[in-house]
Amino acid sequence: MAQRMILSVEDVHQYFGRFAALSGVSLQVPEGRLTALIGPNGAGKTTLYNVVSGRYRPTSGKVIFQGRDVTGLPAHRLCAMGLGRSFQITNVFSQLTVLENVLVPLVIKGGGAFCFWRPLKRDRALEQTAMKVLAMVGLAEKAHVGVHQLPYGDKRLVEIAIALAPAPRMVLLDEPTAGMNPEETEHMIQLIKSLAETSGTTFFITEHDMKVVFSVADYIYVLHQGTLLAQGTPEEIRADQRVKEAYLGGSLEP
Ligand SMILES: Nc1ncnc2c1ncn2[C@@H]1O[C@H](COP(=O)(O)OP(=O)(O)OP(=O)(O)O)[C@@H](O)[C@H]1O
Hints:
six-stranded mixed sheet
């Protein structure tokens, strides 16, 4: 049976002045799978994420999400359509508790307003949803702890919980293990695997750590200097000579 594609990027070009950060990139992300986007520093991964998540309108080309042309739609519209993105640690409200952080996107999704200086309106149904998400990422026991008190690895888990809370159809995870120690990285690998298998959500991740990529991804796209260099299963990418050369001096082998 043909796989349904939740996301298609079609011939996307992104210029910054005269510099082409993306030159004719096309790729597809199948629904319910974990697809990774990798590439050496400066390859264009973040730029492509910014195009897909509505932060940039590409110079040319299209982004199709769930069959609709969403090119250039603002991030909040894409979010309402089911496209989630993990936010960097600086975007987590560190003075709020873990639970409150996860409630924020739920309150906003429900049409409520969030004011940082006013306590979140207590809503049992929303709290139950938030607690379920916290249980999924293994943070239920720390629900009432202030985020500023958490170790780094747990803060990254809060980011993932925030991205998952509104039950998106697809989540973009930007380097989920960046800055983690080996133990935290291993925990994150297991978590991403289990979320990908059980949540029904499609994951599209960028990651520098090849150990993580090769152990979690179903399919991998490799960007190099703004163009697509290779695509394939982890085994195919691991064996691809062009990818090895692009990473020369880097760490393709886990
Ligand atoms: N806003 C911008 N203005 C000008 N050039 C930019 C801008 N954003 C990115 N670039 C350039 O585009 C190229 C791709 O950058 P991008 O951040 O997308 O790469 P990346 O693959 O995410 O790199 P890294 O792995 O180091 O984060 C780089 O040469 C970068 O300097």
